[in-house]
Design brief:
Layout lengths: L1 E4 L2 H4 L6 H4 L1 H4 L4 E3 L7 H14 L4 E5 L6 E4 L6 E4 L6 H9 L3 H21 L3 E6 L13 H5 L6 E2 H5 L16 H15 L1
Parallel strand pairs: 1-2, 1-3, 3-6, 6-7
Antiparallel strand pairs: 4-5
Helix pairs in contact: 4-6
């Protein structure tokens, strides 16, 4: 079975029939898609490992999201809360006003990537990583110890696969890929996992 995890791009936001036309469905193999709109890389790490611990997974396709998103545990219960720099809620405002730094974003990204790399390797799960960075952006401009110990193989940006919205609007609805964009992503992932 193939596991897909990520944010709204993996979930298939803005598609009329996401269950049929998102890239995970187009690959055509037995799969589960646990992507969620607004999910952070912390959440992707947590839900991926949780799923793999409870299910047999042969291949994992992980779509990392914007590095500035974070996840915090709610004060009651075992539930999580996604925060973003543009969030209007008190938790987001407080975090991004007083704690957030770009360097911490980068270190956190590489921490999540490293933990997933090690988890997949130790459990014999083939994996493929993609992300949402702009093709010209390099996340390693502020190296951390997490970067130093992670795999240096570049993570492919989905925006380099389908182009940016400004230059390739034919691949987008508004902020997310349309059916054509999802087909391009599916073709790219298929070529790299089989």
């Amino acid at each position: 079975m193939i596991l897909f995890d990520g944010c709204s791009w993996t979930w298939g936001d803005e598609l009329e029939n996401r269950e049929k036309t998102r890239f995970s469905s187009l690959i055509g193999h037995n799969h589960v898609n646990i992507g969620q709109c607004g999910k952070s890389n912390d959440g992707i790490l947590r839900t991926t490992i949780d799923f793999c611990e409870k299910n047999e997974v042969d291949i994992a396709v992980i779509q990392f999201t914007l590095i500035s998103r974070r996840e915090i545990m709610r004060e009651t219960g075992n539930k999580y809360y996604h925060i973003t720099p543009h969030g209007k809620d008190d938790k987001s405002i407080e975090y991004y006003r007083n704690l957030h730094t770009r360097q911490d974003d980068c270190a956190n990204y590489y921490k999540n990537k490293f933990i997933l790399e090690q988890y997949f390797k130790s459990n014999g799960i083939k994996y493929y990583f993609v992300d949402l960075t702009k093709p010209k952006d390099a996340l390693d401009f502020q190296n951390s110890s997490w970067y130093d110990i992670s795999n240096k193989k570049p993570v492919i940006s989905l925006k380099s696969v389908i182009g940016r919205m400004r230059t390739n609007p034919e691949n987008y609805v508004t902020g997310h890929p349309n059916e054509k964009g999802h087909k391009l992503i599916a073709d790219h992932i298929y070529e790299n996992i089989f």
